[in-house]
Specification:
The protein has 207 residues and is an alpha+beta fold. It is built from 5 helices and 5 strands, in the order βββββααααα. Strand 3 and strand 4 form a beta hairpin. The radius of gyration is 22 Å and the shape is flat. The model has no long low-confidence stretch (mean pLDDT 90).
Amino acid sequence: MNVFLEETLKLQRCPHCSVDNPNLIIVNDKIQTQADNGYNPRNWGVYKCARCGGIVTAETNYNSKEVVNIYPKPKTVNEILPTKVKAFLQQAIDSVYAPAGSIMLCASAVDAMFKEKGYTEGSLFSRIDKASNDHLITSEMAKWAHQVRLEANDQRHSDIDAELPTIEEAKQAIEFTETLSEFLFVLPSKVTRGIKATATSKSTDAS
């Protein structure tokens, strides 16, 4: 979907609070900038989310209204992730302003990752420990995974002694879940592509 520098910035979600179809209202006149040598002229618009108050900056080329960059960029999940992992993680990101639900979705994404790697027996607790013992993840990552698991358990079982999680705690859970997905799926995929590209290049050079 093309986005344009107008009175409202039409994004699917706010990059800060992830509200659907946010009301992003321009808060300044269009700003024009260029590099110190006169090159790279650009136009900028600054917008405020009516829900969370977060500021979003949009950039266009000098003679165009079509937005080419948005800061901060809306959070998206890597397309190579397995379907369930991708769905749970995206829903966790989209619901960060409902932190209890967001953390439970993070735990579901973590659980789905281990199952994708063949750890299907027992509870999430045992799957995390087994993955650590097998050196699929580090001991530090296992500790972090257990923290997310425990926070999700507090919300899932409505523990009367547990305080409701904060948005910041939900963001930390999302950060771990994203990190784990990078470690288990995204980086190995990049390595595989790199090896194939190198092999293809050497084969071409040798011919």
